[in-house]
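call fold(seq) -> tokens
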Amino acid sequence: MTHPNASSRPTQAVVLAGGQGSRLRPYTDDRPKPMVEIPGTGTPIIGHQLTWLAEEGVTDVVVSCGHLAEVLQKWLASADLPLSVTTVVETEPLGRGGGLKYAAAHLPRPTEPWYATNGDIWTRFSLRDMADFHTERDAVATLALARPRIPWGAVRTDGFGRITDFIEAPLSTFEVNAGVYVFSPEFTALLPERGDHERTTFPRLARERRLAGFSLPQGAYWRAIDTAKDLTEAAKELAAQS
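ret:
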């Protein structure tokens, strides 16, 4: 049976893969951040992302390249990919919002919705459920929201200031932008030509109540790969799951 929202689920996506990845050096000295491999998998982060997008019904992806773009383009050209991939390279820095707009202009179906993901996100959850959530709320943009673990041990106290418990790496009480999005077709026109959409477009949509937040389901795996420690942790977590 076809889900009533199935026709509004995106089949195209943008992957933002242009960051410098300076905090991941030396891994990023000779490759862009999305080309860094999760230890033990033999596949770069972007390879896992493209497989996930294909599993979620995406057929066409535009990869926005920047730092060491030719390394990423060479890998994409030689890899056995589960979907069609186009790459674009910014000739001058456009900022996150401008870069997203530039990449979106190369999507094959501009009148249809689309997904976007940051190139350093390692996650698995149902994009189809997120797309349905987006449609049901009549949103122009929907952000996936994650509850990351705080990297320090937390302390619980009673009303008198006595410590009652220690909690190692607890989940944050706040949700954060998980770097995965669903956008309606009209979102592209709202993006700045250059600059950061998170300071312009998103706040405007929030004020207009047209921005939605999809909380990742409990137990869904999510990690932003920012540092060498993140790589080590991701490898440990994957080993524990297998």
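The longest helix spans residues 228-241.
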